[in-house]
Amino acid sequence: MPKNIFIPIFLILLTFQLHSQQKYTLSGLISDGRNKETLIGVSLYIEETKTGLTTNEYGFYSITLPKGNYTLSISYVGYKTVTETINLTQDTRKNFFISESSQQLDEVVIIQNNKRVDVRKPEMSVNKLTIQEIKEMPVIFGEVDVIKSILTLPGVTNAGEGQSGFNVRGGAADQNLVLLDEATIYNSSHLFGLFSVFNPDAIKDLKLYKGGIPARYGGRLSSILDIYQKEGNKNSFHMNGGIGLISSRILAEGPIVKGKGSFVLAGRGSYAHLFLKLVDNPNSAYFYDLNTKLSYSINEKNNIYLSGYFGRDVFQLNNNFVNTYGNTVINFRWNHLFSDKLFSNMSLIYSDYYYGLRLDFIGFNWDSGIKNYNFKYDFKHYLTDKFKLTYGLQSNYYDFNPGKIEPTNEESGINADQLDKKYALENAFYADAEHQISKNITLSYGFRVSNFLRLGQQTLNTYANNQPVTFNSEFQIYESAEPIGTVSYGKNQTIAQFNNIEPRFAVAYTLNDDQSIKASYNRMSQYLHLISNTQSPTPLDVWAPSDQYLKPQILDQVALGYFRNLSDDVYSLEVETFFKKIKNRVDYIDGANLIANEAIERVVLNGKARAYGLEVLFRKNSGRFKGWVSYTLSRTEQQVDGRTPEETGINNGEWYRTGFDKLHNLAIVGNYKLNEKWRFSSNFILQTGQPVTFPTGQYEYQGITVPIFSSRNENNLPMYHRLDVSATLTPTKNKGRKWQSEWVFGIYNIYNRMNSASITFRQNQETGSNEALRLSIFGIVPSATYNIKF
Q: 85, 109, 332, 609 - which has most CB atoms within 10 Å?
């Protein structure tokens, strides 16, 4: 990175520091008055200057104003609005404690942000769901699910029923960066997508970025799902949990040192497999996970946090096939306040995703995974009331284990083998500014400089003409090239290096206090690839780093939107249109073998992709009945050209739909509070069926029936739709007693729609005719959960 890049940043800091010398700074923390937990995204508004701001991820705020008296209003959904007059005659540190507007069973009544659209902030393509909203939504097996809840937002779809991961604006599942307390989660699902790995009792805040992504985020193309865990009650000890038909959960929290330190410990587990054992069924599938977090305030300027997550899934068939996979993350963070205007956070993060198989009928164990060690140092500089600067650096070291095989017994005949491990180092520096130019125009602009080093030690193949995939002109097909030699790299030698500059820009033009027009542009680089031949992540998928053959994916995205609050904020409307293009998006040649493939470059071709669409989100934010309607009209396509005029490319070089293309995506969510005892909720989902490639005919060759397929992804599965409902009963005897309870009754897919997860074709053995076989995962699924808090 050029050294002179720091000169303009220093001059900006110096200029604004000199300009603000005649002003004073008001700063502090905003916390829950009951448990002293800091609150993220609390809105503060200065009446006299018409200036607004929000607390950061650690509840800190800062604003610099001229000397004088100001009326400060603090608002947060689910909390009483606080209005206070501030006489600002010197730099002032003031902490606020706000109270809940009503007591509820849900431990997490901490709300992401006021549902009123912030028309002045240059933030767009960002969706927020409160934990309270998520807990009120009906989900499968009665278990609250963060991932399934975000599927009701515009631009977000699933890969199919019973499949893990999610797709954002036509992107693949591996193009989503999922963060839990800043640590990367590589697989966000339990039991192949039936549950998410996030225990809602332990979640404090979540935000989904689909575009206009701030420069502090990088490494993925489609979205950032940023989730923070609770810090715990600093005043008193509490527990809550729930007992369901399939799984149960429990959480404990309390002070380590009253008023200064706290802990959270939460656990979850499923036990449906135990019922199978009662009927002597040897198969089983279950999961368990553990969330923990410690926080301690050393003094007003220093806070430390230690958080962790551990989860495992186990899938077993007849004691001969055992699949185990899961995430482990640990994060140590240190918040330091250099001054009332300069906030910093340093993080040391460890992430580990393990996936393994035990095949006793063959006699071997298979272990693989990915680990990364991450260092981050971020700064938030509140220079003036109209200019804020965020900057920092990040370094991420990757350790890839493509696979290790070990025999389980001497009779197996399997030789122990370790596929070559792969290593990489990703570094980044970023700077991002939020700048209010005038009363009507606010900008957000910045850049991210990323550097990726593919490191040894490894022995790699070399190929004729440097092409690991060749084209057979006689049969018009692509084939894996035979290596002509090898080259060896020593430990920490650089195999390949990439550098990218990623600009970010967003603007909000305010038409009036209730409506605005926003636009954004961002470039993103992704250096990791998920090697998979399915639309949804599976435990057998392998992560691979960019190298001389697997080039980094580069995305450019633009978006334009209209935002409006209606009827005194009772309703809000968000309309966005977007277009994005991607370079170096890989696809696989026909017949590609991906499992245990040490030379994946021999079965992939680089292409390009594009996605474009329209998103609409209409909300009702207050009253007994609340909810939203989201609709997305979009198209996602990919193209792999021939490298020479003689080559056909994939799909004859024509654009074809990706496996994540969903032309129509509609979600309707409603919550109705009948009285203090009963509340009801429902959601309806309708999506275009997943793109697939069906056979259109067949011919016989030497007695073998050979199918003829349509163009790639030319067909669709049938339209997907379902309706879920739930009812929550809160007993009246909860009032006045130390422990509280509630019952949650739900029905998933109430009209028993048998949605197609896949369609396969076969020949009927009796009639000899061809037939299509539809696979459906779920019909109607009732559930009941008993929640308790004390």
A: 609
CA pseudo-torsion sign 273, 275, 278, 281: negative
Q: What are the tens digits of pLDDT across the range 44-68?
A: 888 888 788 888 888 899 988 888 8
- 231 vs 139, higher pLDDT: 231
| Chain segment 146-179, per-residue pLDDT in tens | 888 888 999 999 877 766 678 999 998 889 999 9
Whether the upstream peptide bond of residue 316 has omega within 30° of 0, thus cis, is: no
Partnered with residue 557 across adjacent β-strands are 522, 580
Q: Please tell me the pTM assigned to this model.
A: 0.89
Q: What's residue 708's pLDDT? A: 77
pLDDT band at 281 (very low <50, low <70, confident <90, very high): low
For residues 455 and 565, what is the distance between their CA atoms, to the nearest angstrom? 51
Closest to 150 measured CA to CA, from 628, 738, 689, 723: 628
CB 712 within 8 A of CB 153: no
DSSP state of 750: T
How far, CA to CA in Å, does 480 sit from each of 438, 593, 602, 603, 651? 59, 10, 5, 6, 18
Does 605 have pLDDT greater than 70? Answer: yes
Q: Cβ–Cβ contacts within 10 Å for residue 488, how many?
A: 10
Q: How confident is the model at residue 102 (pLDDT cuts 50, 70, 90)?
A: low
**Biggest CA-to-CA distance, the chain:** 93
State how beta strands 176-180 and 223-229 pair. parallel
333 burial via Cβ count (<10 Å: 0-12, 13-18, 19+) = buried
Cα angle 118, 226, 269; round to 5 = 130
**Residues in the chain, total:** 790
Question: Residue 212 — left, alpha, or beta (φ > 0 → left; ψ -120 to 50 → alpha)?
Answer: left
pLDDT range class, residue 536, cuts 50, 70, 90: very low
DSSP state of 279: T
CA 563-50-14 angle, to 5 degrees, is: 105
- Confirm if 62 and 23 have CB atoms less than 8 A apart: no
CA pair distance 320, 282, nearest whole angstrom: 10
Retrieve residue 637's tokens: 């396509």
3-state secondary structure of 681: strand
Looking at the predicted structure, is the pLDDT value of residue 331 above 50?
A: yes
Q: If pLDDT is split at 50, 70 and 90, which confidence band does 373 have?
A: very high
Mean pLDDT of 260-286: 81
For 37, list phi and psi in degrees, rounded to 5: -85, 135
- Cα distance between residue 555 and residue 70, in whole Å: 44
φ/ψ of 465, rounded to 5, equals 60, 20
**Cα–Cα distance for residue pair 585/604, rounded to 1 Å:** 10
Helix, strand, coil percentages (3-state) for the chain, rounded to 5, are 10, 55, 35
The chain-wide mean pLDDT, for the chain, equals 85
CA distance 316 to 719: 32
At position 362, the amino acid (one-letter code) is I
Which residue do the tokens 């005043």 mark?
A: 235
**Residues 6 or more apart in contact with residue 765 via CB below 8 angstroms:** none
**Mean pLDDT calculated for residue range 660-672:** 93
E strands, 230-320, in order: 238-244, 247-257, 261-270, 284-299, 302-317
- DSSP secondary structure string, 690-710? PEE--EEEEEEETTEEEEEE-
The residue type found at 584 is N
Letter string b/e over residues 202-239, b meaning 16 or more CB atoms within 10 A of that residue's CB: bbbbbbbbbbbbbbbbbbbbbbbbbbbbbbbbbbeebe
DSSP 778: -
Question: What tokens appear for 123 in the block?
Answer: 């933030």
SS3 6: helix
Which contiguous run of DSSP H or E holds residue 131?
Answer: helix 131-136
* Rounded-to-integer distance, Cα 694 and Cα 689, Å: 13
